[in-house]
Specification:
Number of domains: 1
CATH class: Alpha Beta
CATH topology: Alpha-Beta Plaits
Strand order of the largest sheet: 2-3-5
Distance between the termini: 76 Å
Helix content: 10-25%
Largest sheet: 3 strands, antiparallel
Shape: elongated
Number of helices: 3
Number of strands: 5
Order of helices and strands: HEHEEHEE
Structural class: alpha+beta
Strand content: 15-25%
């Protein structure tokens, strides 16, 4: 009897399934999506590389001439790199749809403008 009551109650409820990806919702506040590094602000200290627990950031070169490479397939999106950056040049975007068939597309190179 109780099971029949529960069944009828659930049949009257609206569908709880989201219509994603056909109807996109606004990402929640504070979502850590794709990493963005402002190379104009970067001082090349290397703290982001040192503090990244996943080893997802590689510094190519030294100091203010260094370029950065971010491996999104390794990134945990923990935010440690952004927290440790003294110049606050690392931010996270709200872009979260990063799935890809080609691993090369999950590597982002941030180069300095000459």
């Amino acid at each position: 009897m109780a099971m029949e009551h529960e069944l009828l109650r659930n049949l009257r409820k609206k569908v709880a399934t989201e219509k994603y990806p056909f109807i996109k919702k606004k990402p929640p506040e504070g979502l850590r999506g794709k990493l963005i590094i402002d190379m104009a602000k970067c001082i090349g200290c290397g703290l982001c590389v040192f503090d990244c627990p996943a080893g997802a950031i590689e510094m190519i070169g030294k100091g203010t001439a260094a370029d950065l490479k971010v491996y999104l397939d390794r990134c945990h999106f923990c935010g440690q790199c952004a927290e440790s950056c003294p110049s606050k040049c690392i931010v996270y975007s709200t872009e979260f749809e990063l799935a890809n068939f080609d691993k090369k597309n999950l590597t982002i190179e941030f180069k300095r403008k000459l």
